[in-house]
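Two proteins follow. First one:
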Amino acid sequence: MPTHKSDSFLAVTQHVHNCGPQTFLISRKGGTLLTINNFVYRSNLKFYGKSNNILYWECVQNRSMKCRSRLKTIGDDLYVTNDVHNHVGDAKRIEAAKAVGMLIHKKLSSLTAADRIHGWNRSESSADPLKV
């Protein structure tokens, strides 16, 4: 429940401790996109913090629809800093990626900067979606 202060809402951050393996969608350009509750998020996979384990994520509809939904991950902890979307979810996109083998499951802490360039490690999946 949001906290009121002078008739305005203060932001309430949701925290999921050690959230386990997440579902990632591999984009057409080979990037790694995070899927949460039928929404897709992008990160530049530039790591921040003393332990170099903080990632910031924005909704992929940020540029086209001005969606302001944001996430932050610290290791395997997920922080939802803004869960309000101004559009419907991306269920069709996620299902289409699943149908051609472009979804992977991995822990957030296993992401590296190489995931933004190379997309994913094919040894993690038995099917090669590029041969579809």
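Second one, unrelated to the first:
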Amino acid sequence: MYKKVFQIIQPKALWLRPLSHFWAAYKRVVEEEDNAFLERHYNDMDIILSGLFSAVSTAFIVAMESNLSPDPNDTTHALLMQLVQIGLGNFTAAGSTPAVPASIWSPSIANIRIQCIAYASLSFSLLTALGGVLGK
């Protein structure tokens, strides 16, 4: 029974042989092209990720920058209070010198340390990206 089935199938399978050579050649060419494509773009991913990390670090630094300077609303509030006291005629409460609360303000040590670490991280990230570009 199997011999009869094999005899029936074998002549029909002859037309598959040219296609199998085509697909083998196609597979070889496509694998070479894919490997070349992946090699080219895999190496570029390091630089892209380093640049992306630098951008994120910069965004955090910009967001934390306001913690290193005094709040301008405090100064405005103090000066407005002094003007109100002068307008009410209470010169002694207003004082003879302008109120500048920013002169006594200083950032906390924790904010300064965090900023130093963030700037160091950004510097190392940019140096790594520069080294990657120069190394290629």
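SUMMARY FIELD: The chain is about 80% helix and 0% strand. The mean pLDDT is 76.
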